[in-house]
Design brief:
alpha/beta; 6-stranded parallel β-sheet; globular; binds 1,4-dihydronicotinamide adenine dinucleotide; binds (2R,3S,4s,5R,6S)-2,3,4,5,6-pentahydroxycyclohexanone
């Protein structure tokens, strides 16, 4: 069986996902493309040897009988409308983060999906598919370090472009931690605060960088996440869990260690695409398999909503400097 996919958005991650669906993963074929920049679709079609139909209108792509499932990899603010259209057409849809740019937007999708009567949406939160995070979660669930008490995390990028603004540290970058830490601890957030250390001279005038986000969970776990998007030296994701009887750390990506010239060294990645390359493969294979079986089970619209609720609170905390309460409604049985 082959899942015929229509992709909206052929930018950086769109191309990566199209490449993996067409040339790496099993049981999928990209048959349709759309982007506001048509020439980009033509280039992707040619370079990845797809022979996909290019649609100038995304609604026509979603409605096309030759498209069984939709992949949304366009800019964040466009996601909600495309996901709603796919759900209303009864089609499975993989949507890159964020599911929608506001919690209310995510709730609109939840309501549409519940009305459709079955799960159709998978959000592109790939970290729960990463082997390192999975190993860390196993250590916690087996009680090897006792109850988790504190987490120290970091999300560092070497640099970001001029268009990156202070709020994007939350909506574009921290959003991955907001999802994966909730999954790791099996817990929800109850408050957030954002504090600003001394600003790096490498950040643009409109960006506060670095930032430290302090989160508290319902079970009382305290989390600090350093977001530092002009750290210069590499793309570095850190997560240390302090438990009652020990400490567990997210494994470093594999890198050969060298001893030479009086120096012990190992490389650090610089590109996010490489850091989670295997996790992207596994998440998309899961989506393809789930869509073909009519049983989507990856990160849900509810997970997208929970991250958005926490992100909204972090944005309010960025602006006020206050500790902002986070309140999640009860999870509907539909997403149990
Ligand atoms: P990008 O800017 O490289 O590509 C976005 C594409 O969407 C562009 O080609 C643009 O022309 C197209 N587009 C914008 N509006 C559109 C519309 N109305 N209709 C059709 N196409 C439209 O951005 P990038 O980095 O590929 O990011 C795309 C999404 O993926 C974002 O939501 C981003 O947060 C997410 N992302 C997720 C990552 C992950 O690790 N899970 C990594 C990088 C991005
Ligand atoms: C990017 O948008 C992503 O989603 C990457 O996974 C993330 O680590 C990076 O910081 C973001 O800019």
């Amino acid at each position: 069986m082959i899942l015929n996919l229509g992709v909206i958005g052929t930018g950086a991650i769109g191309r990566e996902h199209i490449r993996r669906c067409s040339h790496v993963l099993r049981h999928a074929k990209v048959v349709a493309l759309n982007d506001i920049n048509r020439s980009q679709c033509e280039q992707v079609n040619r370079e990845l040897d797809l022979q996909a139909t290019i649609y100038d209108n995304p609604d026509d792509l979603i409605a096309s009988p030759s498209v069984q499932a939709v992949m949304v990899t366009s800019w964040g603010p466009t996601h909600e409308a495309f996901v709603l259209a796919a759900v209303n057409a009864g089609k499975a849809v993989f949507c890159e983060k964020p599911l929608a740019v506001t919690a209310q937007g995510c709730m609109n999708i939840i309501e549409a999906e519940m009305a459709a009567g079955k799960r159709l949406v998978q959000v592109g939160f790939m970290r729960p598919y990463d082997s390192g995070y999975r190993a860390l979660k196993q250590v916690l669930e087996q009680g090897e370090i006792g109850q988790p008490l504190m987490l120290h995390c970091a999300h560092r990028n070497p640099s970001v472009g001029e268009a990156y603004t202070t709020d994007m540290a939350i909506t574009d970058t921290l959003i991955h931690e907001l999802d994966v830490l909730r999954w790791l601890l099996n817990d929800d957030y109850v408050s957030a605060q954002v504090v600003y250390p001394r600003k790096t001279s490498r950040a643009s005038s409109h960006l506060n960088d670095p930032q430290i986000v302090l989160l508290e969970t319902a079970q009382g776990v305290r989390i600090d996440v350093e977001i530092f998007v002009n750290c210069q030296y590499g793309y570095d994701i850190q997560c240390e869990v302090v438990g009652e009887s020990g400490i567990a750390r997210l494994p470093e990506p594999m890198s050969v260690q060298t001893r030479r010239a009086a120096t012990l060294a190992s490389g650090i990645l610089t590109d996010w695409k490489q850091r989670f390359i295997a996790a992207y493969d596994v998440e998309l294979q899961d989506f393809i398999t789930g869509a073909l079986a009519g049983q989507i089970s990856g990160p849900s619209a509810w997970d997208g909503y929970a991250a958005a609720v926490a992100a909204d609170a972090c944005l309010a905390a960025q602006n006020s400097g206050d500790i902002v309460a986070i309140s999640m409604p009860a999870r509907p049985a539909f997403y149990a």
